[in-house]
Amino acid sequence: MGILSFLLASILAIGSLGYENDDNLIFIGKKWVFLISGSSGWDNYRHQADIAHAYQIVKRNGIPDENIIVMMADDVANHTNNPVPGTLINQPDGVDVYKGIKIDYSGKDVNSENFLNVLKGHKSAMKGKGSERVIESRKHDHVFVNFVDHGSNGILGFPDTFLYADDLIMTLKEMHAKRRYRKMVLFIEACNAGSMFDGLIDDDTKIIAVTASGPRECSYACYCDESEYHTCLGDLFNVKWMENLDQTIFDVSTKSKTILRDFEEIRTNVTNSNVMVYGDFHVGFEKLSKFIGYNVQRNSQGVINYVHHHPIKAGSLISNRNIPEIILNRKLANSKNIQEIKSLMQKINHRNQMKQVIDAIFFKMYNRIVEALPALSFKIGTIETPAPLKLSIDVFPCYKNIINTISSNCFSLAKNPYVLKKLKILSNMCVVDSNIDKIIVVIINDVCSITNIPNGLENIQ
């Protein structure tokens, strides 16, 4: 073997590097992985469990920690509700996926601004925050992003902020223009996840996005029937793509599985929502292992590691929008303690009262708006059944202004997953007229000023 061949072979043996034969040219590049749980709180246990599980997979697949960045609130593993403190599981009787995880950004550092700066590789913007690490990808590198949280029309959630589709799309365009990657894959688990890309992402930028749901539907949580935890352990989309890899047996066909083939398998197994794919379909023919590595670990007997998974029962699936309500009612139905029953009933009644207040505020806003603009209702639909209007980039300044006005003068929308399903009607107004926010914010301010808004409204899940 010549010296050049030996050096090339040595470089390719390093887990963070790979090669690609493209037009008979060999390119050396790293694999970068960015894992994000955008939520906080016990009710959202599943999001952090998903991301911790994803970390274990890519780590096992040979991606070094220096090429993995993890962003999660990290308030669940040691939560007082956790029956096994210091652990996270992603399936019933599952292994601890929290063990050994290295979290770069937690607590208040989990926000949309930091997410975009880490993705873009803006190191100076992250100085003094968390680990300060960013995705330092270059033109020959492959980038994999897995984001898990709540969502709405053109929105992904963070504990205190929103990530809007236009900001994400513009970041991806900036990365493409600056040649910050060779190819990129995004797996997005959230309600309405498809609305982040539908009609917005270019099809020639070597980026492909796979989403847990279409633009106008909710995604589903799973393993929600564990009485000891009183929450859901995973999200169906994320669980399915990861469990497929957990059960991988080393052979050529599995190692060579393409992203589109993996998408087909996930879509077949996720029947409660429409798993979608957007962007540059040419990237879909690439091997998934080019982005997240491949597990070739054997145990001491020389057998490939195999992880057994529980079947997902229909009763353990819950729409991500309904989890707190259903879990509380299940606890109430199963409780035999008088004091606990009283406490649960108080929580349920309080939650229902707060939901009624939110409903009343939105109906008041809507009625005032369509009263001022009568022709609008025929185009945008109603709060319960909004028209299926598609977003465009120029809609977002209007949309953001309306949402920021409500958050500033009424109650925070970012902390309130219940209200997310009501935002479609607001984006529809901006789709019809991108300058309509100038009228609407006046009405919103008036409604909020004369409405008695109780404390804690923003915390209703």
- Please write the string of helix (H) and strand (E) elements: HEEHEHEEEEHEEEEHHHEHEHHHHHHH
Oligomeric composition of the shown chains? single chain
The largest sheet, given as strand count, sense and whether it forms a barrel, is: 7 strands, mixed
Q: What best-fitting shape do the alpha-carbon axes yield?
A: globular
CATH class of the largest domain: Alpha Beta
Percentage of residues in strands: 5-15%
Number of helices: 15
CATH topology of the largest domain: Rossmann fold
The mean pLDDT is: 88
Please identify, by name, the CATH architecture of the largest domain. 3-Layer(aba) Sandwich
List unreliable stretches of 5+ residues. 6-16, 20-26, 249-253, 298-306
Distance between the termini: 63 Å
Q: How many structural domains?
A: 2
- In which range does the helix fraction lie? 25-40%
> Structural class per helix/strand content?
alpha/beta
Radius of gyration: 23 Å
Provide an overview of this structure:
- This protein has 461 residues and is an alpha/beta fold.
- The protein has two domains: 3-315, Rossmann fold; 339-459, Topoisomerase I, Chain A, domain 4, CATH 1.10.132.
- 37% of the residues lie in helices and 13% in strands.
- It has 15 helices and 13 strands.
- It has helices spanning 3-12, 45-60, 112-120, 165-177, 236-246, 252-255, 259-269, 289-292, 323-334, 338-372, 376-380, 396-409, 417-420, 424-432, 437-449, and strands at residues 17-22, 25-37, 68-71, 142-148, 151-152, 155-157, 162-164, 183-189, 207-211, 220-222, 234-235, 276-279, 318-319.
- Strands 1, 2, 3, 4, 8, 9 and 12 form a seven-stranded mixed sheet that branches.
- Strand 6 and strand 7 form a beta hairpin.
- Helix 9 (323-334) runs antiparallel to helix 10 (338-372).
- The radius of gyration is 23 Å and the shape is globular.
